[in-house]
Amino acid sequence: MSVTATQKRSVGAVLWDYLTTIDHKKIAHLYLIGGGFFFILGGLEAVIIRIQLIKPENDFISAGFYNEMITMHGTTMIFLAAMPILLGLMNAIMPLQIGARDVSFPFLNSLGFWLFMFGGLLLNCSWFLGGAPDAGWTSYASLAIDSPGHGVDFYVAGLQIAGAGTLMGGINFLATIVNMRAPGMTYMRMPLFAWATFITSVLILFAFPALTVNLFLLMFDRMFGSAFFDVALGGNTIIWQHLFWIFGHPEVYILILPLFGLFSDVFSTFSKKRLFGYTAMVFATMLIAFLGFMVWAHHMFTVGLGPVANSIFAIATMAIAVPTGIKIFNWLATMWGGSITINSAMLWALGFIPSFTIGGMTGVMLGSAVADYQYHDTYFVIAHFHYVIVGGTVFGIFCGLHYWWPVMFGRILHEGMGKLTFWTFFIGFHMTFFIQHFLGLMGMPRRYWVFLEDQGLDLGNLISTIGAFFMSFAVIVFIINIFYTAAKGERPSPDPYDGRTLEWATASSPPPHYNFAQLPLTRGLDPLWIEKMEGNGKMTPAEPLGDIHMPNGSILPFLMSLGFFIAGFGFIYQVDHSAWYLALYGGMAFALGCMVVRSFKDDHGHHIPKEELEREAD
Amino acid sequence: MPENTSTNSTVKAYQKKKNKDEMKKQLIAFASMIAFTLIAFGIVATESVDKMFLIPIIVIMAVVQVGFQFYYFMHMKDKGHAMPATLIYGGVWAALLTLGGLGLITWW
Ligand code: HEM
Ligand SMILES: [Cu+2]
After folding, report:
1. Is A340 helix (H, G, I), strand (E, B) or coil?
2. CA A153, A156, A159, A162 torsion-angle sign
3. How far is the first Cα of chain A from the last one, in angstroms, to the nearest whole number?
């Protein structure tokens, strides 16, 4: 039992600990809390949208406010909820899975989190400062440039800061997996979740710069009088769409690949079988990432790129269905003949397969350029991407939370409530989105504030809204489950599911902050399982017990991000009054000052002496 | 450990020579990069070369410079750089693909 967990500490001490932490497990907590907060916020926005659409010609909210709602719902869910929660899971688990004591750059890890958090807060400040962005989560330039007020400026500044944090996270994970795998942990012995983290990070590294550039161009256009997208001044508004989707399509794979990895681990654990077709799974993931960069124009079929371009991108798009299909069959084959345990984690994984497959199928339908002229900008597209993003990403997040809760928090979530969450969410999800396919085919356009009576859309929309209430109920049960578990949940052994991989091979649950007193020796795929089968039951150490060198915490990442946050306001408001340059330069100078301090102050970290490790072992 | 000193000193001498060679290579690469840059500016400023040749010349020199950057300054020529090389070429590939795609859409 670790010493810190048993001691009661004051709230202030805990807060300071989290503000300065650079431990990957605590940063994971921060990501989950931050992402969870924005997930609830985005969920509320979704419910408001659905209430507005519960009946024809409703005036629950005004048209302008509706535009702000849909924009902030999409932006929040993708950039501030899904991505950070995924980064949280990767932070919590990947270093353990490869047998490392932390990520390569713990300081950068913390900086990445705080940039995301402050970027997200900046974006949401817009609600209170004259209105949120209202040009859609895609923020097409033709709308964005003419959007009055500062809403879109908040979008630009907020996403720029949050995006920088994400890019740092990706680079950090790459460096970690390349350099810090434990002895014997070759690439082809890594669990699929670690592989997925690696490939996702590559996608982040190559895709995010396109967004960064795009946001800068929009920023120059809106705040500094340039005309990259302004057709009247000789610009080209289509450039935004290209750059956005060059980023945007890889982004949707950033959202799904980590969960593909997670589901692979979950299926193999709860089927008590080695993953079927491990090598094929790894290469299918790579292939998806590779093809993901060649299909961006399928979001632009109706822009008028011409038949040649449309055909090429249509074919490339359909090609992605092949590696995705390989994966689905491998999961099914993993379960085939296995001894299957169905608990709440496994339920989410099982629910994922049919749901995501439907989303992939409508994806292929949309990928046919000709047919897309009919589907584009209707509820059919809404149904498609909610089937893949909710049925894949959100199901995966719930699956991961239930599966890894013991590793992350040292408790097991309540099974009964877990199952209730799953079933209500599953039913609500299909109720909300399945009917939307048909609404779309009947011609209901997306992003419209109201629909008219007696066009055959009334009942479908009502059903859809009721489904949304089911999902809200499920999320509330999940939140109750969290609090209940924190108060009364059982304390599990470090290996409650008879696991196969290294995150279940730690000394305690949650693991001590150095993860492994002695780095484990990996002898093959599913290293813990191998040891169990050979009767050892635990990992063989790869090194003698010795002092462990760990880095020190620091408040600088928080302060740096605060500086950029202030500078963000400066950028947004300097068009109104030049006094705001004070905030712009002040914030920047403060952030740069923190970097200087960081560069010149030597901090060699600390050692955990061997004696202490021995004491904690018994 | 008196018997170790002799091997140590040969290792040291070897290391020293290696470092010196490495330094020489770095300097040559650095000098040629500066020369390339000067040439590029020179031929544009003096307008001494026809545009038909000017653009390919500059592109070739740029590619060579990028090569120097990767292989000498970023040490991709040394052992143990397979993963960085894979990632860098992956990035180059993604960028080319994007440019190729955009070019195709615009001009075909
Ligand atoms: C794997 C996870 C996937 C995610 C997260 C995803 C996400 C999305 C999103 C967010 C959009 C809407 C863009 C917008 O207009 O605002 C979209 C549209 C589209 N998706 Fe997917 N998608 C996925 C898989 C697929 C697959 C497997 C295919 C095809 C094989 C596909 C093909 C398309 C096409 C063609 C569109 C454009 C539809 C239109 O705007 O008319 N997607 N997808
Ligand atoms: Cu796409």
Report:
1. coil
2. negative
3. 9
Contact across the interface for B101 and A178, Cβ inside 8 Å: no
Q: What residue type is assigned to position A116 of the chain?
A: F
How is residue A384 written in tokens?
Answer: 């498609």
Domain A3-554+603-617 sits in CATH 1.20.210.10: yes
B5-53 pLDDT per residue, tens: 556 777 888 888 888 888 888 898 889 889 999 999 998 898 888 888 8
Instruction: Count the Cβ atoms, other than its own, within 10 Å of residue B91.
Output: 14
Q: Say how many residues make up chain A.
A: 618
Helix (H, G, I), strand (E, B) or coil at B102: helix
Burial A70-94 (b: 16+ CB within 10 A, else e): bbbbbbbbbbbbbbbbbbbbbbbbb
Quick: pLDDT tens for A125-138: 999 998 999 999 99
CA dihedral A599, A565, A255, A316 (to 10 degrees): -90
Name the 3-class secondary structure at A541.
strand
Burial class (CB in 10 A: 0-12, 13-18, 19+), A119: buried
Residues of chain A positioned with their CB less than 8 A from the CB of B101: 294, 296-297
Distance CA A188, CA A278 (A): 9
CB A464 within 8 A of CB A383: no
For residue A447, the Cα-to-chain-centroid distance in whole angstroms is 24
Cβ-contact A289, B91 below 8 angstroms: no
Q: Which of A22, A478, A378 is nearest to A30 (CA)?
A: A22
Query: Is residue A69 within 8 Å of residue A124, measured between CB atoms?
Result: no
Q: Is the peptide bond before A84 cis (omega within 30 degrees of 0)?
A: no
Domain boundaries, chain B: 2-77, 79-108
A256 touches A320 (CB < 8 A) = no
A414 lines ligand 1 (CB under 6 A): no
Q: How far is A202 from chain B (nearest CA, A)?
A: 8
* Mutation for testing the A interface, residue in B98, B99, B106, B108 having most A CBs under 10 Å: B98
ipTM: 0.73
Q: How many CB atoms lie within 10 A of CB A7?
A: 8
In this predicted model, what pLDDT tens digit does every residue of A340-370 receive, in sequence order? 999 999 999 999 999 999 999 999 999 999 9
Protein residue whose Cα sits closest to atom 41 of ligand 1: A376
Annotated domain spans of chain A: 3-554+603-617
Integer Cα distance of A451 and A351 in angstroms: 32
Q: Which residues of chain A have pLDDT under 70?
A: 1-8, 617-618
**Residue where the block lists tokens 């290391």:** B15
**Cβ neighbours of A454 (radius 10 Å):** 7
Long-range contacts of A444-448 (CB under 8 A, 24+ apart): A444/A378, A444/A379, A445/A377, A445/A378, A445/A379, A446/A377, A446/A378, A446/A379, A446/A381, A446/A382, A447/A67, A447/A70, A447/A136, A447/A377
